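Q: What structure does this chain adopt?
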Amino acid sequence: MHEVIQGQKTCFWCLHDLIQGLKINFWCLNDLMQGLKKFWKGLNEVMQGFWKGNWGIFKLVEVPQNDKAKAMLEATSKVEVES
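A:
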């Protein structure tokens, strides 16, 4: 009978260790998922910054072209007024 009880205790501790291992595995996975979420959030912010940077460059390039267009319009309107 003593051996049966010892066997049951051993079995219980094996299960206990297995459950502890699963908990640790779960927390590792949870940490991994949290890390991935943070990584994607960071990547998203980098992409947002990239698009804002590109938009800023686009605006910088666009402004002089608009000034050129305005200058051309003013020049053509002056020509029309003079003639």
